[in-house]
Amino acid sequence: MKQSVLTRYRALAYITGVLLILLTAGVIAKYVLDISGASGFTSAVGIAHGWLYVVYLVLAFDLGTKAKWPMGRLAWVLLAGTIPTAVFFVERKVSRDVAPLIEAPEPVSA
């Protein structure tokens, strides 16, 4: 497996996680604290999180199939983008587990 597969997954995991935390804060601001302007923020962040979560799903599935994970583990990694802060813990564990599977780059001969 190439390093780029893991790097793409990690980048989208962090982006999805941050957007989900922002979305959760926006929903709390909108419905619990009744802050004006939170509706627009929640809509914008919700749309961004939704689209980027789809990209996260594709990249996580790609990583999982290349790492030959069982279906249960793959499902947990895919669902981690829907639970606030879970994606950060799952990403850390995935990175540690996948690191030994990364191929060393071949030296380029001149």
Tell me what you see in this structure.
- With 110 residues, the chain is mainly α.
- Helices cover 75% and strands 0% of the residues.
- The protein contains 4 helices and no strands.
- It has helices spanning 3-32, 38-67, 71-79, 86-98.
- Helix 1 (3-32) packs antiparallel against helix 4.
Q: Portion of residues in helices? A: over 70%
Order of helices and strands: HHHH
The whole-number mean of residue pLDDT values reads 87
* Percentage of β-strand residues: under 5%
Note the main attributes of this structure.
110 residues; mainly alpha; 4 helices
Nutshell version of this structure?
The chain has 110 residues and is mostly helical. The protein has helices spanning 3-32, 38-67, 71-79, 86-98.
Topology:
Blueprint: H1 3-32, H2 38-67, H3 71-79, H4 86-98
